[in-house]
Design brief:
Blueprint: H1 12-16, H2 20-29, E1 33-37, E2 43-46, H3 48-54, H4 58-61, H5 76-87, E3 92-99, E4 105-116, E5 122-131, H6 133-155, E6 159-163, E7 169-172, H7 174-183, H8 188-196, H9 200-206, E8 216-220, E9 228-240, E10 252-262, H10 264-319, H11 321-343, E11 354-356, H12 358-375, E12 379-383, E13 391-393, H13 395-413, E14 422-429, E15 433-440, H14 447-450, H15 471-481, E16 484-490, E17 496-503, H16 509-512
Parallel strand pairs: 12-14
Antiparallel strand pairs: 1-2, 1-5, 3-4, 4-5, 6-7, 6-10, 8-9, 9-10, 11-13, 14-15, 15-17, 16-17
Helix pairs in contact: 10-11, 12-13, 13-15
The structure holds flavin-adenine dinucleotide.
């Protein structure tokens, strides 16, 4: 640690050697209004600055009581406190409303010190005062301006928050405080910025200009009730530093102003139209998916006897080549037909790769499944994390995936006589991942069958009911494409819990074969 330079200390005796006249002149010529009184506050001495501040010349005030200066409006308690301190031989500082000789009131900032003799008795009082009327006026102007700005900002129907470079909220308004209840977080600004500008902490600290953006939307999901859409706009504000060390230099600190507008009604309108369109697309895709699965299953099953026939033809080749030839011809023709069948399998629709809000997907799926859930008397518990960072993915595939999981749950709990019918959907932000759980209170999948559930064509349901069991294997493929995983566990109620995990630290764009726009 560098050595702190020591100030040169002169011996105290040197000061006492000053001629008394110097003291007198120093006090007389000081720019501070100084008066010396007897113990009853009768003025014995007043300097030139005292005359300038009060308007009374030395001759006019000598022998008068200091109360001469009183405007008679300072509260009695102030004088009582003042005299209590002075009587106890302690100095007193405070503000008094005085009146100049011409009758003009002024605000005086006063310090009075008792002068105590060797016997411990107060012989005099030393009073020092300065006129702080202008300072007080400026303080009030600033205070009034602050109140005015606060009133305007509070009356605004949008939320404001001003952050310093460390992310601390310096100023906010009523609408912003309301967000504390809505989002149920300590600092709504942080939660919203996490959602719309994930690296905001680093950029605000190092390059605040790059933190400026307009109209980025954050969707806030609450378990019960409607989702809320908040549009966030930021701007940079340059503020003067209030640190002492910036007094002589242009110290400047940057603030980030967040303006948060609720655009829920607009988005709800758009959402309604979107949900209707999406319902149609999903229904269509489900129909073609059923055809795809049916044909795939048929081809898969037809291949089994063809393979048996191929082995038989190979065995027959040596003993009866003519019959083997006929068999092989039949086999070739069958394979040709199978190939034709393969070619008519409808293709999966083109689905763009975009940043996806998982909560939005889950809410869409719940909305689409609502009639079935109501029909089956299932109670839904939707517990989303208020805001989630986006994942890169194919929205249609993800909707199909979660719809398949919800459909599975509905199916499982719909068996006759099953009493407990509860579906719980949660989304949570984990360590660099988003975890979604779809759990039901159905009969569940036995532990030894859980791993088989992901095999193609495995079904725990009645095959005659039209299930061919490709749902979970398809879900697993979709998650693998999205750099995630899906697993099945026992739910708290003994039913089935599908756990879907999206990694946030890997980019699935290449695997999904598209650029997120
Ligand atoms: P006061 O009759 O003076 O009494 C007001 C209260 O103070 C009462 O409760 C009383 O009990 C108590 N009190 C008064 N004198 C004493 C005392 N000697 N010992 C104990 N208690 C006492 N006042 C101003 O308004 N403006 C000034 O600029 C100002 N400067 C002062 C500078 C000095 C150095 C001192 C010592 C006092 C100063 N005062 C000043 C105080 C002033 O002397 C009066 O006390 C005050 O103005 C109230 O006056 P008053 O006539 O309304 O009431």
């Amino acid at each position: 640690m560098p050595a702190i330079p020591q100030a040169k200390v002169r011996p105290v005796q040197q000061a006492t050697e000053l001629p008394p006249e110097v003291y007198r002149q120093a006090v007389d010529q000081a720019d501070l209004a100084i008066s010396i009184t007897d113990p009853e506050a009768n003025i014995l001495f007043a300097n030139a600055a005292f005359a300038r501040v009060t308007g009374y010349s030395g001759e006019q005030v000598i022998g008068m009581n200091e109360s001469l200066l009183s405007n008679q409006t300072t509260p009695d308690e102030t004088y009582q406190t003042m005299w209590r301190e002075l009587t106890a031989q302690r100095p007193w500082s405070g503000k008094l409303l005085n009146r100049r000789q011409g009758g003009e009131p002024y605000l005086a900032e006063l310090t009075i010190s008792p002068v105590v003799d060797r016997r411990g008795e107060t012989t005099h009082f030393l009073g020092m005062q300065r006129d702080i009327t202008e300072l007080h006026r400026l303080e009030r102007v600033v205070l009034n301006q602050k109140k005015l700005i606060e009133a305007v900002v509070d009356a605004a129907p949008i939320a404001f928050a001003l952050l310093d470079q460390s992310g601390r909220v310096l100023l906010d308004n009523h609408e912003y405080k309301k967000l504390l209840t809505t989002l149920q977080v300590n600092e709504p600004a942080h939660t919203l910025l996490d959602g719309v500008a994930p690296n905001w902490r680093e950029t605000l600290a190092e390059q605040p200009a790059t933190c400026v953006f307009a109209n980025r939307e954050a969707r806030v999901d609450r378990g019960a009730g409607r989702a809320q859409w908040l549009s966030v706009t930021t701007s940079q504000i340059e503020m003067h530093s209030d640190c002492a060390d910036s007094y002589f230099c242009e110290g400047c600190q940057v603030g980030l102003l967040l303006v948060i507008a609720d655009v829920s009604s607009l988005r709800e309108e758009q959402e309604r139209a979107r949900t209707a369109a999406m319902q149609a697309v999903l229904a269509d895709e489900e129909r073609t998916a059923a055809m795809r699965e049916g044909l795939t299953a048929a081809i898969f099953r037809l291949e089994e006897p063809l393979n048996v026939m191929a082995s038989a033809a190979a065995v027959l080749q040596r003993r009866d080549p003519a019959s083997a030839g006929v068999l092989q011809q039949a086999l070739a023709a069958s394979r040709e037909h199978l190939e034709l069948l393969r070619q008519v399998i409808p293709q999966a629709p083109r689905d763009i790769v975009v940043p996806v809000n998982v909560n939005e997907i889950l809410r869409d799926v719940l909305e689409i499944c609502t009639p079935r859930l109501l029909g089956a008397g299932i109670v839904v518990d939707w517990r989303p994390t208020a805001t989630l960072p986006p994942v890169i993915g194919r929205p249609l595939q993800l909707r199909m995936l979660f719809k398949a999981l919800v459909d599975n749950a509905i199916e499982a709990m719909s068996c006759k006589g099953w009493r407990r019918r509860e579906l719980c959907l949660t989304s949570a932000l984990g360590d660099n991942c988003i975890v979604v759980t779809v759990s039901d209170s159905g009969p569940g999948i036995p532990a030894d069958e859980r791993h088989k559930a992901f095999e193609p064509f495995f079904t725990g349901k009645n095959r005659n009911a039209g299930h061919i069991g490709t749902g979970l294997s398809r879900a697993q493929q979709v998650m693998a494409d999205h750099a995630g995983i899906i697993d099945i566990e026992e739910s708290e109620s003994g039913g089935c819990a599908a756990i879907v995990e999206f990694r946030l630290d890997s980019d699935p764009t290449a695997r999904l074969g598209g650029d997120p726009n």
